[in-house]
Amino acid sequence: MLLATMLLAVAPQTAAAPPVAQVRVAFDVKGETSIRAKGLADIAANRPIGVDDPVRVASISKLVVAIGVLRLVELGKLDLDTDVSSYLGWKLRNPAFPGTPITLRLLLSHQSSLTDNIDYVLPLDADMRAILEKPGAWDATHAPGTWFHYTNFNTPVVASVMERVTGERFDRLMDRLVLRPLKLDACYNWASCSDATKKRAVVIYRARQPTKDDHKGALPPCPVTPAADGGCDLSIWRAGRNGATFSPQGGLRISARGLGRIGRMLLNWGTLDGTRILSRRSITVLETPLWAYNGKNGDIDNGFHCSYGLAVAFLANSAPGCRDDPFGDGMRRFGHAGEAYGLKSGLWIDRKNGSGVAYFSTDVPATPGTRSAFSLTEEAQARPFD
User: Fold this and answer.
1) What are the pLDDT digits (tens) for 286-330?
2) Torsion sign over Cα 220, 225, 230, 235
3) Is the dihedral of CA 338, 65, 257, 316 positive or negative?
4) What does DSSP assign to residue 166?
């Protein structure tokens, strides 16, 4: 028995299964510089992954929302430092700090004091105001503007603000402001994607079991989270009532090539293929950190978050405890990571060298990285060695 135990102790561990799909697009100011796509978009159908196949990229969706917000700022419809209560038509406050206004700048930079203690994935007929009036949705210890805590619920509030000032459904608004001008075949929560695009959905897996977008080659039965009674009647939508409907915090379906186009626009100071999306000033605002970890001013998730702006993360920070450099070269980059349902994604821009990379992997093993708080798969995608 002792010998058997010793043999087990020194036996090599079983290698983790590789991701089901991996796609990576590198780019510079002129265009794509390299493309890699391997694996399957759909295991059951044995469908190979392609660089143009749409996937739920998780939290990179937040960065794209920020682009939409800045477009509305440029149009004079929004201000980053106005109390969002004036846009919503009702007072948004942390009950523990009722005198402190909450702004878009605070919401987008995860300094609003909102938390994810209450589920942010809301049914179609939910009343977001009633949910946000519950004390349990808030951090009762830290006032708005004093603490960083990464919170998905911030972005549905932003989406509600966008709907209220425009009167437009969030997914259609984002299509008009960002996706269509960038010539992107993309959508939030499938509702505004073409039928052909929906049928090319990348299935997301965990342990080889589907977790998201397993539509079996058909159209999704409901493009959003159904109502409490299971209904899916989008005509009940009302501007600003439920900003979570189209999953602004993580529901963008877009290809790696599409993410690369967004990255190229950012790299080109707001223009892409001759079309201006944002002013140079707005890009500067987007690229400016609003919070940096100083050892006692936020939750850094084991060193993963150490500097953040308007839904933009900044990499390679040197503060003690920071492990936010999956590239391993110490270069400053900005962009965003995504993680949900077994998927990992990233969009990162290196301003100094004029380059960037967009990537995603599905069914990512839990193997931790060797040089950062990112997974080993993300480190390989960020700076590939094969």
Assistant:
1) 999 999 999 999 999 999 999 999 999 999 999 999 999 999 999
2) negative
3) negative
4) H
